């Protein structure tokens, strides 16, 4: 009997893996109904496809943004694969934006030295990719897609990860034996009070891998996006950086420019610099605003996602300034993998935001994450399909590794506040230590607390600022 590849998570990384694994049977399990973080992505796909641009230049910008903490071999491979990734996405049905000349429209975002961001439907690129790949998944005879499936345990047999247990939408548990298990479960943004991620992005896959003893790395590197719409809620609408690229400006509550004198790039300073400034003004009791009214042209057509979010909250970005707040956006750390998605546990692979392969280093360059998910998902799926028929099946007694019970709903806001204060855009030893002790004392209360403890430990151990990890007490000041 051919055991399936089990892919957990149906963002772009999970779907690309599943599609590329043809003809090997795949079970694609997806927990949430609110969509993956991929679908929320307002950036585009970075690729050196413009005249005069090169993968080497894209790689250099990626390493510059990542503070040199990147794995060069991974950066070089992905940036070289980027133009082919765009072509593959087009073949899957993604319609990228083109100019009147029929050429791809290439945008430029913070940290990129060239126009190399490809969009589909303006600021709705992530949703366009998810729609196209989902249609392919539904057509693919080798993939069995299942929504509402919560994976909460890994099956270990003969020293290998050999399957998963998942609870279906009907509340029934199913044990699935697998030729290989791929975690593509996304990031951890929803562990914080405000995030650009969907509410389900709580690090469930990372917590499962930690419980099983998989090696993790770079957990301290969390990217905060400076401009989400400051409205009620946990998962907040992003106000894409491209708005500032198109002429929007940042102000404090008194109408003073927010970034004056702080960075030569002003409002388009690196994301972490702007996020810390917004954090600081808010901590001092002030308010922070994005003025989108100078943006020229047809706003609803250029930024349909932003426009719809603003309208849903009774705001008109063409006529009034928008209240902003920083949000947890992207986790550079995760389950340690190589370029092939191989983890320290035989049989277990990881891809997309849950994985840490060194592509992003200490800070991700804008629009590099959809690229990474698709490029490495395709690579992993193809590798698995080629190697699994020859791989030996795991033998021996079965042992289940469980993630364990989750934190009670009522206790989750307190954990989020704790992380925001200690593990947000600005950190110091005393807060990290106190938060870690709080988590240590409460770790039996849920897997989210154990995961938070692991994050706080990594943040304590890196006693200097690097990339998105900013330590106020290690010779750095705001
Ligand atoms: C943005 O559009 O500001 C976010 C894009 C990204 O995070 O890549």
Shape: globular
Q: What is the helical fraction, as a range of percent?
A: 25-40%
How many H/I helical runs?
14
What distance lies between the first and last C-alpha atoms, to the nearest angstrom?
Answer: 60 Å
Total strands:
19
Bound molecules: succinic acid
| Rg on CA atoms, Å | 21 Å
Stretches with pLDDT under 50, minimum 5 residues: none
Structural class: alpha/beta
- Give the rounded overall mean pLDDT: 94
Fraction in beta strands: 15-25%
Query: How would a textbook summarize the main sheet?
Result: 5 strands, parallel
Spatial strand arrangement across the major sheet: 6-2-1-10-17
General description of the model:
By secondary structure, the chain is of the alpha/beta class. The chain is built from 14 helices and 19 strands. Helix 6 crosses helix 14. The N and C termini lie far apart (60 Å). The mean pLDDT is 94. Succinic acid is lined by residues 42-43, 240-242, 366-367, 369.
Write a concise keyword list for the protein shown above.
alpha/beta; single chain; binds succinic acid; 478 residues; 18% strand
SSE layout and pairing:
Layout: E1 5-8, H1 12-20, E2 26-29, H2 37-40, E3 45-46, H3 55-65, H4 72-91, E4 106-107, E5 117-118, H5 125-139, E6 143-146, E7 150-157, E8 160-167, E9 173-177, E10 180-183, H6 204-211, E11 216-217, E12 222-229, H7 242-245, E13 249-252, H8 271-283, E14 288-291, H9 299-302, H10 304-312, E15 322-331, E16 334-336, E17 348-350, E18 355-356, H11 369-387, E19 398-402, H12 412-423, H13 429-442, H14 447-461
Parallel strand pairs: 1-2, 1-10, 2-6, 10-17, 16-18
Antiparallel strand pairs: 3-5, 4-5, 7-8, 7-19, 8-9, 11-16, 12-15, 13-14, 14-15
The structure holds succinic acid (SIN).
